[in-house]
């Protein structure tokens, strides 16, 4: 009887065995599943890049070179990043028409967003560059509209006007109107500096600064915009306002002067 009782299992033995089995299963899962997921993501990214390469060969290589190295007809795309592709192709500026003016205008886009993502992935694989921003980066959450107005007037208004209405530059070039432009594309333009625009990397304008500027533009160009100063005259700034003052203000003064002179002449005759 003593021998049988000595060999009897402890009541907690089954629990300990179960816990050991669960721990072993967890370690095996942790060791293999993330690797499998990482490989799946890597495969999907490779397929995206490959599809982008095919699109690039048909629609872009004739100007930018087969490897994105550039040519006499188009600049190098190595290192421009996915953000530049998403902006240029997403706004229809690329592919460019055969004959262009002083700069490439915005037009209806040729590719779907899925195809743009594939092109962007391929160009990003050629060299590190700015990535496509997320909604958290350019969305209104946490933005300071007043600070954005200060930043816009100090860094952007010289070309785009005080409320983003655009303006003329030299030799037929121009700064485009920013009304109704996708906030993502405004962010990407600040990141990449397309055409005549300088780039504003995070070292110049932080991510929060860009968010604030976009919030300001949305506020002054929104559907519910209120102009406390009265008629905005197109929002074109002091030139249009000064012209309005000269034409209507000076014109009113001339009319008053003529009226006073006429009344004075009548008074003298009587």
From TrEMBL:
Which annotated residues bind heme c 2? Answer: 156, 159-160
Give any Pfam family that matches.
Answer: Cytochrome_CBB3
Recorded GO molecular functions are:
heme binding; iron ion binding; lyase activity; quinol-cytochrome-c reductase activity
Protein's membrane topology: Multi-pass membrane protein
**SUPFAM superfamilies reported for this sequence:** Cytochrome c
The superkingdom of the source organism is Bacteria
List membrane-spanning regions.
243-262
Q: Main location per UniProt?
A: membrane
Its subunit composition reads: The cytochrome bc1 complex is composed of a cytochrome b (QcrB), the Rieske iron-sulfur protein (QcrA) and a diheme cytochrome c (QcrC) subunit.
**What is the name listed in the Swiss-Prot or TrEMBL entry for this protein?**
Cytochrome bc1 complex cytochrome c subunit
Q: Which organism is it from?
A: Streptomyces dysideae
